[in-house]
Give the backbone structure.
Amino acid sequence: MRFLTLTLLTAWPLVGVATERSVDAETGLATWQTETQGIQVRLTQISPDQVRGFYQARGFTAAAAERYARECVFMTVVRNIGDIPIQHRLADWRYGVAGQPSRRIRSKTEWDRIWKRQGVSEAARIAFTWAQFPATQTFAPGDWNQGMTAYRVPRGGRFDLSFVWHADGRTHSGKLEHLRCADEDS
């Protein structure tokens, strides 16, 4: 895979941090990444077709897979690049679309209620839960994890993500700006 990398400078609380944006030349899907105060956060677009295929292969009906594909879905990776443990709680993260109040990311429990109402099998719901980014986690130095996160933003829409983590008894925050949802034809 080949990547085209553009570097943008963004103002961050306490420090100036570079946000890198890259685009996969084959798929056209974009990735945004930042490193600040011992944490690396990376979001990569997942196309609606990838979402549909992934969940239908795990037992979702076409209608249930389509329900999730209507969301703005990203592969989210968090890595501890510092030398002390860090903790995150996804419930503390917020995203915002210009001119609207910020929102929290829908929890796995909320998704499970949606899937039960749509008649999604227990096995498929378990597969969904395992594929999502962890709700909470402690990362030792060098640890990382990944999973999907979804945002209620229209196809091609833009938003900012504020992420929060805790280290050494203190709360830290960072921001990825101008994230863009994958288009239907991505």
About this structure: DSSP finds four helices and twelve strands in the chain.
